[in-house]
Structures are given as C-alpha cells and as structure tokens.
Amino acid sequence: MPGRKLTLPPFAALRAFHAAATHDRYQDAARSLGLTESAISHQVRRLEAYLRVPLVDRSGGRPKLTDAGRRYLERIEPALRQIHAATEDLLPSGGRSPVRLTLPPSFAATWLIPRLGDFETAHPDIDLQLIPTTRVVDLRREQVDYAIRHGRGAWPDVEATYLLAETAMPVCAPGYLDAWAGEPLQSVLGKARLIVNANTPNEWEEWAHAHGLEAPSPAGQVTMDVLEQALQVAGSGHGLAMGRRPGIDAWLDKGLLVAPFGGADPTGAAYYLCRLTGQPPTAAGRRLERWLAGAVDDWHAGNPVSPVE
C-alpha cells in the first residue's frame, strides 16, 4: 500500500517564518539567516499564501503573530528542533558546536566559571556561550539552548532537571563574634549587627524560627540590595549576613568568611537545568548535560550538608 503523501510547505518559507517568529524584528531574523528583510517578508507572505491563513498581523508598528501564527509556531518548533538535532548528529565534525546557556550572574561567577577550564579541557569542540542575567529568559524567543534557574522547579514550557539545593547559614568575618564568645545564641543574635538581603527580607526570622529562637529585633539591621553586597559588608567585619551555598563557597574556602554556628540548612529553593519541553537536545547539548551532572556529583561529594550545631 503506497504511503500517504506528505503535505509540506516550502521549507525556505518555513525557515523564514520561524526566524521572524522567534526574533523581535525582521532585521534580526534576516541577519540570523543571512538574508535581507524584504526576503524574510516575501517568504512569510509565501507561507501565508500556501496555508491560506494570515500568520502575521501587520496592522501595528511592528509585525506580530496572529493566533493562528502562534499555534503554528508551537506545532512546528519541536519538529524543526528534531530536524536540527538529527542533522547535527550525522554531519561530520567541523569546528566548534555552539551551546547557549543562560544563568544567574552569581551562580556563574561563584560556581560555573571556576569550573569552565575543566569543561573546555573535556570538550574543546564545544563553544559554550554564557548569558548571565537575573531575568527569566524566554528560551524559544531568544534561541537559547539551556537555562540554569533558581527556584522550586516550576516554570512553564520547560523541562527542569534538579542540579543542587540552595542552603543557608549565618556567616561573618573571622573574629567578629569573639566579644560574645560563650554567650547563648539568642543573646548573640540580639547584640550582633544583622545584615539583610533585600531580595529575601525575612531570612533572619525564618532562620531563627527554624532553630527554635525568637525572631531578632530589626533595630540596627543593615539592608543591602543583593547578596554580594551583604557578603562584602560581613567580610569587612561589620556584621552577620545570611550566606547561601553554593554562592559563598569561595568566601569560605579563602577564609574571608566563617560559619560561626555550624552547617547550612536547605532553603527550599534549588538550581535546575532547564530546556524547552519537547525539544531534543543537540549532541553538544547532551554532552553539556552529562558534564554538569558529573560536576554536581563532585560538588556534592565534597560538600555534604551538615546540621547546625
């Protein structure tokens, strides 16, 4: 029995539509394909004529997808990614394969970048392009392969793979608490200057509650905009900050900060490796996934979570 004939649109028009739909401007879409803006516009109109439905609304100042265009993009995106991955697997290796990864700047600086030398030694043929940012990047629209995200693992349209948990513990400069040595912990919290991260304003109350202590008084507390600033103030000997691992590991390893009350407690948040749901990874992407898993295993082996004493 003969196979059913496939109904496929012109592929050049399909590529042009996909580029236009995943870039903010036709100019950027044209640059990504090495075409002119007029060529992109012509190919999109060609696809609309083939499908006999408008995919792009051109009534405003900037073209945007119609409802039909958005539905069509959602359906063709996984297929195009599969074609890309299958083709890459068969092509002979030539040059370095790019992989784009977005992640929080603090995680990049304190955890990933110190390990990049190991990754490049193991995979010299992969061009790992880092995009450090605090915003949640739209992987589809911005054509990014992976994201390392901080949170509880619930984001729409992505598959999130657990990497490592965030833990927290008070930290200060060596010797900062010497004047209150031997005093009860509740008393120390009442006398030390507490440094608060504005992004987690209730962190000291939560930590005290978890350890059966009364919430410390807000009097005298210093609030900093980001964790890095809080750690700098603590490292200068001006108070106690709530450190979060793995971000404070380098500070602890260098002896710039100490954890005077013992080990760290899970905060409930963690770091996850995310990629688009239904999007098969490229060969280079799979190798990055395996390397990250191994790096995380090594980190866990050297950094077991211990209870606070």
Task: Report the structural category.
Answer: alpha/beta
Number of domains: 2
| Number of DSSP-assigned strands | 10
Rg, rounded, reads 25 Å
Q: What's the quaternary structure here?
A: single chain
Q: Helix content range of the residues, please?
A: 25-40%
CATH topology of the largest domain: the name is D-Maltodextrin-Binding Protein, domain 2
Distance between the termini: 74 Å
Order of helices and strands: HHHEEHEHHEEEHEHEHEHEH
What CATH architecture of the largest domain do you see? 3-Layer(aba) Sandwich
Query: Quick one: overall form?
Result: elongated
Number of DSSP helical runs: 11
Beta-strand portion reads 15-25%
Largest sheet: 8 strands, mixed
User: What is the overall pLDDT average?
Assistant: 87
**Uncertain stretches:** 305-309
Q: What's the level 1 CATH class of the largest domain?
A: Alpha Beta
Strand arrangement, largest sheet? Answer: 4-3-5-10-6-9-7-8
